[in-house]
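Design request, tokens follow.
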């Protein structure tokens, strides 16, 4: 006779094993054993070392750099679990790469976010748990359920202690206005926008400021920073407008090499982010990393128990 609720099994890829271990500690279940290695020619090899037949399997793997390697590793892990007769496979993707390629805004370009959704579904993923997608419509690219969590409740707890003076929340571009508005309401702060022009994939230019920041501390909010170009350019504009201390809150800090000297020379006092991906240390620059293990762990528990995850969006007053 079968149990009504399949046993939970949690496995991790190599992208962020530390986060996976913290999630398992919160859930109270051991991290499953799996072998992940590469052949001499670079092909990924995966072997799940535990019985997953009839189990509710969760695979934790952000698609952080090297993006393609970690994505391929996740797909192979999914296939391994599927062929081992897992009952359900949930891909836990704290940082969903390729989410910025969500539309066909030029001739002869792909919609890569849709392609990734198709690949995950074809590999055998039953459900996706992710956090702070770059574009909300990416959820609609999947023909399977997507649970989309937000890191804001985690970041807000720290920011309320850090921002004790008059504060204005600033979106570094027009597209982030909705996120900035949510932060301003949660912090009972003002709201402003820096309009930008993108010169290339790695370089942006802040054009003008909409709103008043003179004499106030500023919180720049964004979902993702890689080169730090948008944040640094916006901070320059805000300082010229008379802003006080400038902080930045970013859900995913996927810092590439060119971001390091930019942050070191920037007007930003502190970058607050999450451990959705491994965060690089920047010498001489303050980065505060908030842990999202409990948020993701609670999401996993509720999915496993067929409970609602909507209450995880609430921010304590």
């Amino acid at each position: 006779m079968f149990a009504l609720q399949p046993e939970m099994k949690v496995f991790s890829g190599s992208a962020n094993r530390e986060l996976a271990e913290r999630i398992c500690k919160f859930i109270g279940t051991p991290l499953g054993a799996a072998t992940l290695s590469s052949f001499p020619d670079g092909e990924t090899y995966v072997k799940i070392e535990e019985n997953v037949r009839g189990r509710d399997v969760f695979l934790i793997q952000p698609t952080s750099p090297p993006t393609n390697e970690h994505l391929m590793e996740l797909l192979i892990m999914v296939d391994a679990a599927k062929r081992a007769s897992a009952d359900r496979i949930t891909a836990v993707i704290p940082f969903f790469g390729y989410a910025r390629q969500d539309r066909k805004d030029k001739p002869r370009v792909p919609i890569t976010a849709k392609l990734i959704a198709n690949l995950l579904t074809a590999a055998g993923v039953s459900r996706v748990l992710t956090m702070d997608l770059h574009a909300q419509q990416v959820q609609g690219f999947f023909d399977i359920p997507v649970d989309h969590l937000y890191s804001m409740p985690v970041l807000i707890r720290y920011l309320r202690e850090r921002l004790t003076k008059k504060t204005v929340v600033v979106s570094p571009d027009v597209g982030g206005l909705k996120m900035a508005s949510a932060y301003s309401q949660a912090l009972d702060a003002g709201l402003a926008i820096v309009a930008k022009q993108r010169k290339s994939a790695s370089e942006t230019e802040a054009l003008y400021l909409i709103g008043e920041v003179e004499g106030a501390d500023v919180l720049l909010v964004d979902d993702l920073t890689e080169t730090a170009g948008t944040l640094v350019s916006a901070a320059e504009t805000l300082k010229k407008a008379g802003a006080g201390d400038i902080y930045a809150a970013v859900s995913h800090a996927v810092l590439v090499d060119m971001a390091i000297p930019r942050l070191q020379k920037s007007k930003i006092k502190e970058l607050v982010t999450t451990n959705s991906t491994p965060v690089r240390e920047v010498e001489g620059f303050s980065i505060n990393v908030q842990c999202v293990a409990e948020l993701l762990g609670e999401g996993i528990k509720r999915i496993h128990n067929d409970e609602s995850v909507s209450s995880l969006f609430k921010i304590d007053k």
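Comment from the thread starter after seeing the answer: thanks! The first strand starts at residue 8 and ends at 12.
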